[in-house]
Amino acid sequence: MKVRVNGRAVEVPEGAMVSAAVALAGEAAFRRSVTGEARGPLCGMGICFECRVTVDGRAQVRSCQTPCRDGMEVRTDG
Amino acid sequence: MRASYDVAIAGGGIVGTACAEACAAAGLRVLVAEPGPIGGGATAAGMGHVVVMDDSPAQMALTQYSRALWIERIPELPAEVEYLPCGTIWVAADEEEMQECRRKKVVHDAAGVRSEVLDARQLSEAEPHLRAGLAGGLLVHDDSTIYPPCAARWLLERSGAEVVREAAAEIAGGGLRLRSGERISAGVTVNATGAWAPELTPGIEVRKRKGHLAITDRYPGFVRHVLVELGYLKSAHSITADSVAFNAQPRRSGQVLLGSSRQFGAESGAIEAAMLARMLRRCEEYMPELAELTAIRTWTGFRAATPDKLPLIGPTADPRLYLATGHEGLGITTSLATGRLVADLIRGHEPAIPAAPYLPGRKQEAH
After folding, report:
1. Contact B218 A60 (CB under 8 A)
2. Of A41, A47, B55, B112, which shows the fewest CB atoms inside 10 Å?
3. Could A59 and B219 be called an inter-chain contact, meaning their C-beta atoms sit closer than 8 Å?
4. How many domains does chain A have?
5. At A61, which CATH number?
6. By residue range, what is the domain housing residue A15?
7. pTM to 2 decimals?
8. Does the pLDDT value for residue B77 go beyond 90?
9. Nearest residue to B254 (alpha-carbon basis) of B225, B223, B212, B219
């Protein structure tokens, strides 16, 4: 499967989560806090909400809980 | 033994702090008694909408005067007050509500309030996430939103008033008695304890009216104006039954504040799932994509409601005991005008608008 992270194509295996695709794309900061600090996956199980990204135009999606789909457009605000 | 004060105010919400600031600016020596956080009651629970409302001429006069006072203060407002000059759109679902838009526009024009009627296309351009098929709306330009607890703290700081972190147990014309038993003497005492005012001044016509709110995560630009359904006026918010109305508000953070509900007779501040669900469903009817957003917090608060929907501002049968309560859902808007009225009445000055419609001794008719 191919997804795009900030416009860059990333190849991911079936069943991979969006968080894995973002990491594979080399993005360290998944989002920015209110005060501008870099944030990324902490718990990996949907509790901490630190890994939120924009998926196909929808903001504040938890990347660790969202499976990749072929052709998905992912955007981080890191 | 404390010094004597010109004015002792029970309640450190936006109304109490606005009274403190206006009285201090008039040269009076002021004390505020507040056991909890400043602006931590209904002030923190509300939406922070600064809005002109025209249910009655007296409501129009008070909200217009007070909104002008907020606009005057814009250059002074600290950043944390989050002033956002977003305007209000009254959303019309059908032709009947469009007629109401046009009626309001005439009232606004006569009073010098800037507003414009939007047709369906203009509404959809102004707020792309509203559902298709709405009739239009009325955009009121100079309405805004603020973050009220910080506004209350700012007003209190500006006042330089003495603050005592204790609840008033008893108030009378000559001052107040704190829960600890300490007495504070004052020339005038003001009851500004919102929905709890009848506990200190029994018999006044103020009732608790519970409301639920929800706030989303940050979705900048999702909502651009304060959106209020016009059904709010004609059916939903009757004075008797529980009701909900679509109300969405942008915050500076990009969050969306969602309301509203109104209930009498609810004493517990607990979130009621059925009422919250009803409120959110109403919001979703107007903005279907809200269902895709994440709400991060829900809460409740108590408005101080009066039968004629006007606050109680001014002296009681005891001319040294004042009320400043009963602001219902408009306390943030009308706080500054309330402070000015209280300060003017205490000093025997002519207020900028007639005080008679808000005086506690008036005859109240429910409408």
Report:
1. yes
2. B112
3. yes
4. 1
5. 3.10.20.30
6. 2-75
7. 0.92
8. yes
9. B219
* Residue range B167-215, pLDDT digits in tens: 999 998 889 999 999 999 999 999 999 999 999 999 999 999 999 999 9
d(CA B285, CA B131): 8
Residues of A in contact with B221 (CB under 8 A): none
- Give chain B positions within 8 Å (CB) of A52: 217
Contact criterion met (CB < 8 Å) for B219 and A34:
no
Superfamily of domain B5-48+148-205+308-358: FAD/NAD(P)-binding domain (3.50.50.60)
Q: B160 vs chain A: nearest CA distance in angstroms?
A: 31
Enumerate the residues of chain B whose CB falls inside 8 A of the CB of residue A60. 217-219, 293-294
CATH top-level class of B88-141+207-305:
alpha beta
Copy the structure tokens of residue B54.
């025209």
Q: Domain map of chain B by residue range?
A: 5-48+148-205+308-358, 88-141+207-305
Q: Is B219 on the interface with A (CB under 8 A)?
A: yes
Phi-psi domain of B117 (left: phi exceeds 0; alpha: psi -120 through 50; beta: other): beta
Query: Given CB atoms, is A45 within the 8 Å cutoff of chain B?
Result: no
Say whether B293 and A60 touch across the interface (CB within 8 A). Answer: yes
- In tens, the pLDDT along B97-152 reads 999 999 999 999 999 999 999 999 999 999 999 999 999 999 999 999 999 999 99
